[in-house]
Design brief:
This protein is of the alpha/beta class. Among the domains are: 233 residues, Aspartate Aminotransferase, domain 2 (3-Layer(aba) Sandwich), CATH 3.40.640; 86 residues, Ornithine Decarboxylase, Chain A, domain 4 (Alpha-Beta Complex), CATH 3.90.100. Helices cover 36% and strands 16% of the residues. The chain has a seven-stranded mixed β-sheet with strand order 2-11-10-9-7-3-4, with helices on both faces. Strands 12-14-17-16 form a four-stranded antiparallel β-sheet. Strand 5 and strand 6 form a beta hairpin. Helix 4 packs across helix 9 and helix 6 packs parallel to helix 7. The structure holds pyridoxal-5'-phosphate (PLP). The site of pyridoxal-5'-phosphate (PLP) has 15 residues, from helix 4.
Length: 490
Amino acid sequence: MHYTHQKRTPLLTALEKAADSTNLRFDVPGHKKGALPTRFSESLAQRGLALDQNSMPELDLLDHPRGVIRDAESLLANLYGADEGFFLVNGSTFGVQAMIMAACPPGAKILLPRNVHKSAINALILTGAVPVFLAPETDARWGISHGLTLETVKEAVSEHPDAAALLVVNPTYYGAASDLAAIVAYCHRRQIAVLVDEAHGAHLHFHDDLPKSAMQCGADLCTMSLHKTCGSLTQSSALLVNEGLVDHQTVRGAINLTQTTSASYLLMASLDATRALLATEGRERLSVLLPRVAAARARIAALPGLEVLSSADVGRPGIFAYDGTKIAVKVNGLGISGYEAYRHMRERLGIQLELAEPHTVLAVCSFADDERTLAALADAFASLSREFHGTRPPLEAWTPDAEGGGIPRPRLVVPPREAFYAPSRVVPVAEALGEISGESLMAYPPGIPLVIPGERITREVIRQYEFILESKGMIINEQDNPRLVRILGA
Ligand SMILES: Cc1ncc(COP(=O)(O)O)c(C=O)c1O
């Protein structure tokens, strides 16, 4: 037997190449290739894999911490003003699912906006919680959704006063925040727990010019991806608890249902060091970063064919406050899609963006950015504008009178858990109009499904999915062939 081909290491080789790339990073993780040294990165440089340990008495155990992990988690909770904090080693995906498992017993109703991340949809399949979808405010020109309004929450609560919980995504990927304090106060008067997906907002707590954090607003539970915006290692997140409607023992039980028993000390130690950095330097660093990002955003806004989201949009539907560390840019005025802009920036202009949508791209800025990186970002957008502006008519990926203003809103006709397990068959997506989906279809990132299990597939779902495929966007479906979808019915 010859194993020569087994000497290949396709993933490691690609990873090394990505690590060696000189492209400037405006994506996550927020440490941006270690641009911001911490106690953890220094220790990693010195000790390398010796830091990769398993549980032993002096290192505690994540499933039932009583020693150093407990101490580190308490420091984190204390910093955010929470009663309890849990380190997570499977990202905020796991945190969102643990929050829903803890707050929603089987059959309980949960209110949630339809633009949730796939982790929340999958939690419905895992738990059997009954979703009541709320319409987030949509922006048809940008083709994206923003936050929830208090009015939308009030309407949903008056129709479903028996709901156990409300899940809010705050801020959205693009930086829009809801009036979370008012939403929490309203829900708490009705004994409805508020769970916050703060995957994109672990930094909010540390500056008054940013939207208020979940814990500042009194939310019951929140999950934060410290890896996305604050510099810890990819996959390291945290779940915070404000004791009251959901107690921390229940949360612990939910976490321990599916958490690994071999939690990575690299991830946990990076959370510990990031927490220390946020506590000692977070406010100061944000005071320096925010005006720099604002200056880059203003330069981009002035370029022909480009538009940006900014704090000037506060007050528009679904934008109660804005997270100024994000730079969301609408590029379709250049006659190109977000996907083309993303590729051009990557392949020709040395900039790695976080994501593309049909009309929009997103740059994520973090503590690791400085004047040089932000000037390079604005310069790259200036080149993009020079190259494309006026060469083609503005690209409209959909017409404003398309269903949902271009944002598909398929109707849920079968509960997601039931649909996931129902007899089903696989058909081409192009032929699935009117069928009930057995799976989620989405672009990733952002990971917000166009359709979920139990929803009826509409023309707009098919059109947008095909647009993403043709634009070579990254997609997630369950089938090996991305052009196929599982539908209900044998
Ligand atoms: C809104 C939202 N929630 C949750 C998650 C999951 O976070 P993680 O990647 O840490 O699992 C994401 C990831 O992009 C997200 O965008």
